[in-house]
Amino acid sequence: MTAPLTAPSATAAPSSTVELVHRPGRWIDNWDPEDTGFWNRQGRSIARRNLTWSIFAEFLGFVIWQLWSIVVVMLPAAGFTFTTTETFWLISMPSLVGATLRFPYSFMVPKFGGRNWTIISAGLLLIPSIALAFAVQNPDIPFPVMLGIAALAGLGGGNFASSMSNITFFYPQREKGWALGLNAAGGNLGASVAQFVVPIAVTIGAAATLNLSLAGWIWVPFILLAMFGAYRYMDNLSSAKADFAGSAAALREPHLWILAVLYIGTFGSFIGFASVFPKLIADQFPEFSTFAVGAASISLAFLGALTGSLARPYGGKLADRFGGAIVTMGAFGVMAVGALAVLWTLPLGNFWLFLGCFLVLFMASGVGNGSTYRMIPSVFAARAGSTNAHSAGSDVTTQRKAAAALGLISAIGAYGGFAIPQILNLSQATTGNYEAAFLGFVAAYVVLVAVTYVVYYRRNASLAGQRL
Q: In sequence order, which residues have a C-beta less than 8 Å from that of residue 235 and are 6 or more positions away?
């Protein structure tokens, strides 16, 4: 299976001047996806293989990252007596840790290689999954200890930065939006799968009790499979280099911070609402928190993360075609309408209307995730002087700077996953309801529409002509 990857092709396109060099440890030299002949001859197949296993490993990272979002609503039935504020902290702590870990994780691919770091980062997921399995068996465990164990789930959140940074080196500029969207969507689906599978796994066959430790144990075989798949089928690119100086230069770029704010609004909203959605349903509509299906229970909370995840690659694809700025503006506009609709429907007490409005909000956040992330390499290419930053390739230095920015922006944006549950907690603690929080979300999305328009779409904006 590997011979065609190393042997020159007799039918290679005339324009191709790339000859790959394969070294021990599955290292590849001379990777150049912008060379059309090379890409059509063998680059695309190698990139797809790496993308497939990257998606699977990142998927498991999101599963572990979001385990506590669904486990916390089951803790009372297992004998735990945490307060509402403590419950919100258990929900938000993995996001805080995961967002922070994305900073060092963004440097891991250049340091260790994409394949090698995927093996390591997947293996680290064994720690939070096994720790959770033991912790939930003891209702007398002190809250600080439980909070520390929840924090370990943040290891799954760090995977996103390294995975996305790795995949951006494999694909040409013209296909980055779709590839990054698929990679991210496959990962984001982990949040939905965790919220769907865990209630079934912990209740099926358990009669009147919960086997809550299965929420951690069931993922161990899949983590081991991801480690094997990365070891056997992924590659390291010697061209995937970055350094602290390049990242420092990216941090000095004003557009990095603007894009990070936009990403807080899109991805931060997605992961924040995904993590808190089971809790919101349990608070507002306890009778709809779970449904009995035979001997198992299911929660409809998984539909939120599922909708946002499936929408994400289409956000990237729409951005590939129409430009990221206009798609991002549209996404924020729909998010504002969705949050306002949730605010209006809360007093009505209609669960299905509440669910529908929230799914619109999740869908728009997913589209915005893909379009905002697609803008990042284009913005950096435009700032480097490219006259066709939306579809043309850029020099290696700019690619490395953009790859660093992808990791940094994903880290900053992920703090939304901590902020949203805490804002909702503050609203509940001070006013007794969530209305003030949703008013704040609506206002924030309107402001982000304006920011995107002024900086990236307005006719006399410096980068507007690039269809970023």
A: 26, 27, 28, 46, 49, 50, 114, 115
77-116, pLDDT tens digit by residue? 888 989 989 999 999 999 999 999 988 887 888 888 889 9
Give the fold, CATH level 3, of 31-466: Growth Hormone; Chain: A; (1.20.1250)
The neighbouring-strand residues paired with 316 are: none
Place of tokens 């944006």: 413
* Contact yes or no for 69/277 (Cβ under 8 A): yes
Predicted local distance difference test score (pLDDT) of residue 229: 94
pLDDT in tens, 370-387: 888 888 877 887 776 554
Taking Cα atoms as reference points, which of 166, 176, 174, 173 lies closest to residue 240?
166
In the chain, where are the structural domains located?
Answer: 31-466
**Which has more pLDDT, 463 or 44?**
44
Is the pTM here over 0.85, yes or no?
A: no
Pairing of strands 236-237, 27-29: parallel
Q: CA angle at residue 440 from 254 to 63, to 5 degrees? A: 75
Q: How many CB atoms lie within 10 A of CB 363?
A: 22
Residue 48 has pLDDT above 50, yes or no: yes
3-state secondary structure the chain: CCHHHHCCCCCCCCCCCCCCEEECCCEEECCCCCCHHHHHHHHHHHHHHHHHHHHHHHHHHHHHHCHHHHHHHHCHHHCCCCCHHHHHHHHHHHHHHHHHHHHHHCCHHHHHCHHHHHHHHHHHCHHHHHHHHHHCCCCCCCHHHHHHHHHHCHHHHHHHHHHHHHHHHHCCHHHHHHHHHHHHHHHHHHHHHHHHHHHHHHHCCCCCCCCCCHHHHCCHHHHHHHHHHHHHHCCEECCCCCCHHHHHHHHCCHHHHHHHHHHHHHHHHHHHHHHHHHHHHHHHCHHHCCEEECCEEECCCHHHHHHHHHHHHHHHHHHHHHCHHHHHHHHHHHHHHHHHHHHHHHHHCCHHHHHHHHHHHHHHHHHHHHHHHHHHHHHHHHHCCCCCCCCCCCCHHHHHHHHHHHHHHHHHHHCHHHHHHHHHHHHHHHHCCCHHHHHHHHHHHHHHHHHHHHHHHCCCCCCHHHCC
